[in-house]
Design goal:
By secondary structure, the protein is mainly alpha-helical. It has helices at about 5-20, 25-35, 35-75, 75-100, 105-115, 115-125, 135-140, 145-170, 185-200.
Length: about 200
């Protein structure tokens, strides 16, 4: 599989982890409970571990679909994949332009208001990064080694990024307003889909 696909997936995993909905609730809950940073990090690690596991399982399904589709349609796989990726990019652009408040954000903030620790952990666990599935679909025809490598890389980046953000923010050292980043989530995914489409079309 092209190294470009790995790189794009890593960038999306990092951008996804930077969303405040993935780390800020743990900081706020921990402070409200006056927990130590170590305890908060442990909970965030547990939740992010569940998150990447769910993403990997979803990715494995995507990889299976990709492998089986490539076997069935042969050389048509790449143009079909590119066309679907372009449609996906257009969807995220349209969502950003015409959608209202992101329901993803609303659910997280609601969980924070109730102060329910279980809600925080289960929410992150059962909110896999679906935008990474196309990368797994493209990895499928290259074998399970490529799929496993992709899963390990994006999982490591996600868990480390969330842990670092929680640790820094819990000490009050976070100065960057990452809430603005949420506005560009759809555009990030649109760019990812478009870049994957270009990679499938023009690179081996």
């Amino acid at each position: 599989m092209s190294p470009v696909t790995y790189l794009l997936a890593l960038l999306v995993a990092l951008g996804h982890a930077l969303l405040p909905t993935h780390w800020l609730p743990f900081v706020l809950f921990g402070r409200a409970q006056r927990w130590s940073r170590r305890r908060v990090l442990g909970i965030a690690f547990l939740a992010s571990g569940g998150h990447v596991l769910a993403t990997a399982l979803l990715g494995l399904l995507g990889a299976k679909v990709g492998a089986e589709t490539a076997d069935r349609i042969g050389s048509a796989f790449r143009p079909v994949a590119a066309a679907l990726l372009v449609l996906g990019a257009l969807y995220f652009v349209a969502r950003d332009l015409f959608a209202g408040k992101d329901p993803h954000s609303e659910r997280v903030h609601a969980a924070g208001r109730t102060g329910a620790l279980v809600s925080l952990v289960t929410f992150l666990t059962f909110s896999p990064c679906g935008a990474l599935v196309p990368a797994f679909v493209l990895a499928g025809p290259h074998g399970w080694k490529a799929v496993a490598t992709l899963a390990l890389l994006v999982s490591a980046v996600t868990v480390v990024a969330i842990a670092l953000l929680v640790a820094v923010a819990y000490e009050g050292a976070a100065r960057v307003d990452l809430h603005r980043f949420e506005r560009y989530e759809g555009r990030l995914y649109a760019g990812f889909f478009a870049a994957l489409a270009a990679q499938v079309t023009f690179l081996p």
